[in-house]
């Protein structure tokens, strides 16, 4: 299936280069078909105005049948946004990255979903169990069985 | 196994002229009870219990193979087909959605077929369908709308082949299928972006079209990695579930289809058979009268209607066997019994709880309580309570492991007497002996201490005996090997034939069986309330224990060639006696449960609260 993943990612990348990313999202790095970085900024009025974050996508050979591992970058001076569904280690609790992942979704679709997740935030705070989770969290957020509180 | 035993498969033939203890090996239908057929009636003649007669400690059950369960599944599906007028694949989806509750399904279907079909993922609710479709279109820009309904649609774009759906009769509630010719726009799979002209594409009723390669990868991943028996459409937010014929079409190549990648074919074949196992497992898990065999690699199911109701578990111990023996690759059906040792071990388990062995005679709730107690740290706490005291000043826990009674707390430097717990200053110079023994405070403290110690000792009494039999059962493999060796020696040193030395094997098997019974009688006795009933129970237990130990000793002892005939007689007699004692314990305990005779000293799930707590 590796060829499917490569072909699909090549196509996604080509579209990004040809049509550009949605507003507020920019491709930072896509040197291979394993790890891509995007910058993400919330447009318009929101709690995250003028704040830019970095998203990391990691793809395995089963992509797009299996979801990409998506998280905010928290190294080299980058930080994760303070949001009730974003842990301080960058892990994101979003059903779309877990049990509601569909192979039809694309990298940019995920970016847009996460952008709107930030935009709709009412209060900047960490998840309640942040400290406990971060202490024991696996390196790959896909290994975590999140319990999705709502449909964001 | 040595070559001497190679003809053991049909050893039922030898018993006619030999006074053997066991009955013949059963055929498959009776195999489930074969262990219990060893009962002996009428003293010294070795009669086999008539078939079909059930003892009070046995339950009726049936062993079902995967294909037998598949047949039951088929019956339910056919029933729903005929009542609701839907085709098999729809009936199967509905049943899975309703957890195989036919009555509720029919009721709901009659009430509102559309909402049930939507909830089960058979049809898409109209508004969602359109929005999902427009979304798909916006992504791939080419998914043309086809006004088709029905089960599975297989399109070969580019080519002109159109396979007819694999499912049979049209669904009465569906509009007749119409098949619009596929559009001429080039199709690009929205997942892998493959746009080859000969791409084989597939879609469910929702018409979310993808290439067969992506469907294949997706189904295999869902079935194999996630163990999913209801796989939804790949499109985002689409709740349609893939019907079985669709999955079959994707995974099982049609006859005459071009040979694909062999690894892929193998994965597909495995996924398809795993999918069928998942369906059976779901059916079994949804049915209280059925339970899947817990032994690794076993796919048999046991049906035990009498234990389906939880409340029956206070009166019966539903020990069942799925009819297979051995573990994993060495598994056999019991009619070709491989003989002995663990490789041929029967798949015995309890239908009522998760204990994967025979825990007769004790009922599930008591067995569970006992295992929990043995696992818990509560007994560690008990030990601490019995072996330590607290400093009367700073309450630190102190274990006295030697020395005199003049204690000085390491922490707060408080000096006190270990015996009476009073301050040491009051003892004056009476070192090494406390003369304040009669003080009231000291008496109270000592009473509490000894009660705790007594309770610990009581627990340990039962636990040690329980664990001893558990340990012996674990060593049974060794004993089997040793006995086998002795049997070979006996054939060399005496004139006995292989058939004639079988008495040793029977004896070892009987000892193991009785040890299992004995083991669980200790957990039972621990919780039995004091009284005549308990005394009688423990008398029976003692008699069995004594008989088992005697027989064990005979088996373990060295074999002198000149004593073999006598040993044979003794072992045979003892085996019969042990069997009888075991019968008595099992029968009487089971009867006691049916009569509600047993009273507990602790609160046991499903039973009345004990009147008073006395050990």
Structure, described:
The complex is a heterodimer of chains A (152) and B (615). With 152 residues, chain A is α+β, with helices and mostly antiparallel strands. Chain A has one domain (2-134): Roll (Ubiquitin Conjugating Enzyme). Chain A has helices at 2-19, 107-119, 130-136; strands at 25-29, 35-41, 52-58, 69-72. Chain A has a 4-stranded antiparallel sheet with strand order 1-2-3-4, with helices on one face. The longest helix of chain A has 18 residues, at 2-19. The radius of gyration of chain A is 15 Å and the shape is globular. In chain A, 34% of the residues are buried. Chain B is an alpha+beta fold and 615 residues long. Among the domains of chain B are: 70-284, no CATH class; 379-448, no CATH class. Chain B has 16 helices and 14 strands. In chain B, helix 2 packs across helix 3. The longest helix of chain B has 35 residues, at 440-474. Chain B is extended. Mean pLDDT of chain B is 76; it is low at 1-51, 128-181 and 334-342. The chains are: A alpha+beta (152), B alpha+beta (615). The A-B interface holds A 1, 4, 7-8, 11, 62, 64-66, 100, 102-106 and B 136, 139, 190-194, 208, 210, 213-214, 217-218, 221, 234-238.
Number of strands of chain B: 14
Order of helices and strands of chain B: HEHHHHHEEEEHHHEEEEEHHEEEEHHHHH
What percentage of amino acids of chain B are in beta strands?
Answer: 5-15%
Radius of gyration of chain A: 15 Å
CATH H-level superfamily of chain A: Ubiquitin Conjugating Enzyme
Helix proportion of residues of chain A, in percent?
Answer: 25-40%
Q: Find the CATH topology of chain A.
A: Ubiquitin Conjugating Enzyme
In oligomeric terms, what are we looking at? heterodimer
- Give the fraction of residues assigned to helices of chain B: 40-55%
- Strand count of chain A: 4
Largest sheet of chain B: 4 strands, antiparallel
- In what range is the share of β-strand residues of chain A? 15-25%
Organism (chain B): Macrolepiota fuliginosa MF-IS2
Protein name (chain B): RBR-type E3 ubiquitin transferase
Biased composition (Acidic residues) (chain B): 1-25
Region (Disordered) (chain B): 1-35, 124-179
């Amino acid at each position: 299936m590796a060829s499917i993943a490569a072909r699909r990612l090549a196509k996604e990348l080509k579209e990004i280069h040809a049509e550009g990313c949605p507003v507020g999202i920019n491709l930072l790095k896509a040197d291979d078909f394993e790890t891509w970085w995007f910058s993400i900024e919330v447009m318009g009025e929101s709690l995250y105005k003028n704040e830019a974050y970095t998203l990391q996508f990691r793809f395995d050979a089963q992509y797009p049948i299996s979801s990409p591992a998506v998280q905010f970058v928290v190294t080299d001076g980058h930080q994760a946004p303070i949001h009730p569904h974003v842990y301080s280690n960058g892990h994101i609790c979003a059903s779309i990255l877990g049990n509601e992942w569909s192979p039809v979704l694309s990298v940019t679709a995920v970016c847009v979903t996460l952008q709107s997740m930030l935009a709709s935030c009412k209060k900047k705070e960490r998840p309640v169990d942040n400290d406990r989770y971060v202490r024991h969290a696996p390196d790959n957020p896909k290994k975590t069985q999140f319990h999705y509180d709502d449909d964001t | 196994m040595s070559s001497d035993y190679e003809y053991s498969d049909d050893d039922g033939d030898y018993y006619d002229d030999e006074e053997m203890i066991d009955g013949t090996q059963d055929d498959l239908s009776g195999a489930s009870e074969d262990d219990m057929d060893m009962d002996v009636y009428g003293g010294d003649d070795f009669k086999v219990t008539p078939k079909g007669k059930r003892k009070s400690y046995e339950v009726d059950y049936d062993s079902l193979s995967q294909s037998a369960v598949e047949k039951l599944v088929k019956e339910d599906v056919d029933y729903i087909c005929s009542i609701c007028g839907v085709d098999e694949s729809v009936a199967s989806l509905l049943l899975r959605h309703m957890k195989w509750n036919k009555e509720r399904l029919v009721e709901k279907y009659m009430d509102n077929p559309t909402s049930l079909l939507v909830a089960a993922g058979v049809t898409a609710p109209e508004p969602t369908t359109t929005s999902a479709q427009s979304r798909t279109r916006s992504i791939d820009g080419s998914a043309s709308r086809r006004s088709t309904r029905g089960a599975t649609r297989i399109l070969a774009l580019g080519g002109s082949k159109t396979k007819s759906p694999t499912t049979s009769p049209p669904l009465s509630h569906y509009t007749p299928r119409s098949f619009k010719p596929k559009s001429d726009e080039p199709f690009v799979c929205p997942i892998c972006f493959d746009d080859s002209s000969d791409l084989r594409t597939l879609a469910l009723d929702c018409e979310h079209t993808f290439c067969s390669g992506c469907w294949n990868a997706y189904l295999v991943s869902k079935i194999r990695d996630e163990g999913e028996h209801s796989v939804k459409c790949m499109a985002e937010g689409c709740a349609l579930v893939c019907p079985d014929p669709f999955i079959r079409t994707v995974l099982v190549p049609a006859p005459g289809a071009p040979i694909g990648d062999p690894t892929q074919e193998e994965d597909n074949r495995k996924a398809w058979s795993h999918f069928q196992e998942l369906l059976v497992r779901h059916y079994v898990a949804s049915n209280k009268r059925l339970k899947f065999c817990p032994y690794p690699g076993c796919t048999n199911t046991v049906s035990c209607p009498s234990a389906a109701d939880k409340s029956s578990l206070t009166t019966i111990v539903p020990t069942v066997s799925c009819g297979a023996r051995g573990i994993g690759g060495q598994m056999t059906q019991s009619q070709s019994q491989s003989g002995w040792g663990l490789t041929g071990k029967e798949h015995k388990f309890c239908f009522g709880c998760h204990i994967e062995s025979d825990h007769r005679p004790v009922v599930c709730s008591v067995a569970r309580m006992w295992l929990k107690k043995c696992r818990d740290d509560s007994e560690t706490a008990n030990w601490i309570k019995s072996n330590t005291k607290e400093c009367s000043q700073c309450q630190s826990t102190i274990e006295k492991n030697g020395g005199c009674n003049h204690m000085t707390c390491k922490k707060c430097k408080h000096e006190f007497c270990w015996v009476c717990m009073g301050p040491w200053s009051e003892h004056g110079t009476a070192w090494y002996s406390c003369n304040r023994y009669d003080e009231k405070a000291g008496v109270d403290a000592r009473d509490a201490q000894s009660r705790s110690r007594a309770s610990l000792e009581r627990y340990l009494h039962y636990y040690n005996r329980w664990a001893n039999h558990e340990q012996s059962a674990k060593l049974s493999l060794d004993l089997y090997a040793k006995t086998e060796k002795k049997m070979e020696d006996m054939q060399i040193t005496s004139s006995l034939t292989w058939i004639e030395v079988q008495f040793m094997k029977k004896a070892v098997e009987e000892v193991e069986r009785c040890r299992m019974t004995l083991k669980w009688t200790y957990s039972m006795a621990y919780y039995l309330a004091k009284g005549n009933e308990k005394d009688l129970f423990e008398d029976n237990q003692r008699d069995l224990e004594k008989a088992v130990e005697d027989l064990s000793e005979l088996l373990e002892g060295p074999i002198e060639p000149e004593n073999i005939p006598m040993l044979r007689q003794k072992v045979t007699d003892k085996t019969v006696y042990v069997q009888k004692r075991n019968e008595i314990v099992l029968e009487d305990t089971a009867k006691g449960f049916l009569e509600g005779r047993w009273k507990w000293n602790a609160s046991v799930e499903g039973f009345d609260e004990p009147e008073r707590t006395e050990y």
